[in-house]
Amino acid sequence: MAVAAANCCFFAAAFTGRSITHRLFYTLRTPNYLCSASYNQNPVPVKGQPKKSPGNYPIEKLSRRSKDEKSLSNSVGSSGRKKNERSQSTTSKRVGVEKKGSQGFLADLDEKKVEASDIQDASFLNAVVKVYCTHTEPDYSLPWQKQKQYTSTGSAFMIGDGKLLTNAHCVEYNTQVKVKRRGDDTKYIAKVLTRGVECDLALLFVESKEFWEGTEPLQFGRLPNLQDSVTVVGYPLGGETISVSKGVVSRIEVTSYAHGSSDLLGIQIDAAINPGNSGGPAFNDLGECIGVAFQVYRSDEVENIGYVIPTTVVSHFLEDYERNGKYTGFPCLGVLLQKLENPALRACLNVPSNEGVLVRKVEPTSHASHVLKEGDVIVSFNNVRVGCEGTVPFRPSERIAFRYLISQKFTGDVAELGIIRGGQSMQVQVTLDTRVHLVPYHIEGDQPSYLIIAGLVFTPLSEPLIAEECEDSIGLKLLTKARYSMPRFRGEQIVILSQVLANDENIGYEDMSNEQVLKLNGTWIKNIHHLTHLVDSCKDKYLVFEFEDNFLVVLERESVLAASKSILKGYGIPSERSDDLLAPYMDPVGQNDEHKAGDSPVSDSEIGNKDLHWA
Fold it and tell me: Measured in whole angstroms, how far is the alpha carbon of residue 500 from the centre of its chain?
């Protein structure tokens, strides 16, 4: 997903199904890599792709997104994904926040405005620190090893209680994180408490008392209004000292977050955001923090479009951590919705007024699958009326996407929906939970799962693996499932044979790669842990693997067990399976063995319709 070159990295994500590709980048300031349109250097090509000319960036097509969604990219500095190509071998104060219901933060409006001439000496600048991170990414193609480490720099700021706030992509795959205060030459070790991938936020903790001497945490402010002045502070490339840029708020709406592959409230600004700004605060004229800089929009047709994570999202992230001791995520409703702008469509569905959205699909893993049905029309969410364009009232003279209301809730919250079913109005209750992806965007833990049987390397299909292998080598069938299929139960995975380590036991199968394995000895495979369990418990003479198009791979079980150690030794592999597969297998509740993995695709017509939205 990332491209590397000389002093910073841009990471791009383009959602499939749009006729025009929107590019949003989160950027990473590194001492060794650069790929910025403002620099006349060629980015290093992603494995398997041709070199790009200056200004062109590799795009990772993020899956399972509706067509009307834009792809954003974190332009602000720090880690994200792939800064390097794969190696050849293959305080003491509480957080300054006061809540106003669920709407965000209150601010002390009696404070005087910070004049532009006083910016340099403003005390709040001292709360902004520089982040130095060393990253070591997993190697998804060779899942038993890591890639070569790389370093990056970004920004963070103090929020009290010994904590700092930064972007999640700044400390992704971190092996060491250090921070340095303004005007200081000492770097202090920081611990990552939690990362919120969806909202691209991370919480750091610095134990050293010396680091916090004489400091004050930043105070959070309200959500700004359009045309409000905004000042972005951080440590972007071009120098070592703190940098300040000014602009105005251009737009506030639900925005695609490039790093998290999610849609949350975002603030668009025209202040310059450059590699290294990632994780830095954005201030209003009162010196209050109104958000966190995290990504920019890159296009030949536009310029100076940056994005800030608003305090409403920051508040949700911090409260989630306080409630649960970890980040649990933003919930979803789990339905695919269609706008009801057409009068005939509303009349056919017996919707009497110009409102509501049509339920086109319900995710099987969501609680909504027990409550909602295809063809239902959602007309209200917690007594807030939903318009026929899928929007709800936001502020005076403003409306916003319906999914904004959902993102304000927490996992486990119960929402009351007003629906019309067959012309009858009714109220139903739905428990909100995090969305389950058949092919995940991010892998939890430090190591991808894998299982090696007689040199056959099995691993779950994931977006990082697709990015690393390149789409051409993955194949159209797997890409279609990755983009459009929904899981039937929690824990379901698409398990693939990623490659074959040639040896005497697998003669004739050496050229196989990136093929989905469907069954073992006639039993449908639910996930990689299930496959491991089936192999370990097998008593048959042969291990019979069934792939797409009825392709068979047959191995003699006793021979496989005898040859396992020598194969691993010959390829320098420490273990035949990842550590997570050593734990006892727990079967997904209520699932039978006759389920075919990934067989609930979203149709092309659904993906191609701009009026459809995942809630």
Answer: 30
Name residue, tokens 């977006």. 463
Interatomic CA distance for residues 167 and 258, integer angstroms? 12
Just list the catalytic residues: 169, 200, 278
Distance, in Å, from the CA atom of 385 to the CA atom of 494, rounded to the nearest integer, reads 39
- Within 10 angstroms of residue 333's Cβ, the number of other Cβ atoms is 28
**pLDDT tens figures, 35-92:** 222 223 333 333 444 433 333 222 223 333 333 333 344 544 443 344 444 443 333 3
Contacts of 605 (CB under 8 A, 6+ apart): none
* pTM, two decimal places: 0.79
How big is the chain, counted in residues?
615
Distance CA 230, CA 283 (A): 6
Enter the tokens of residue 177.
């994180």
Q: What is the torsion angle, in degrees rounded to the nearest 10, for the CA atoms of residue 498, residue 500, residue 506 and residue 511?
A: 90
For residue 604 the two structure tokens come to 């092309």
- Write the pLDDT tens digit of every residue in 262-303: 899 999 999 989 899 999 999 999 999 999 999 998 888 888
Beta strands 377-381 and 414-421, pairing class? antiparallel
Rounded CA gap, 50 and 142, in Å?
Answer: 22
State the pairing for strand pair 6-15/60-62. Answer: parallel
Tell which residue, 128, 165, 140, 136, has the closest CA to residue 152.
136
Q: Using alpha carbons only, give the angle 485, 468, 133 rounded to the nearest 5 degrees.
A: 115
Other beta carbons less than 10 A from residue 47's beta carbon: 14
Rounded CA-CA distance 502/511 in Å is: 9
Cβ contacts of 456 within 8 Å, gap of 6 or more: 497, 500, 501, 506, 509, 512, 545, 553, 555
Alpha helices in 167-230 (DSSP H): 209-212
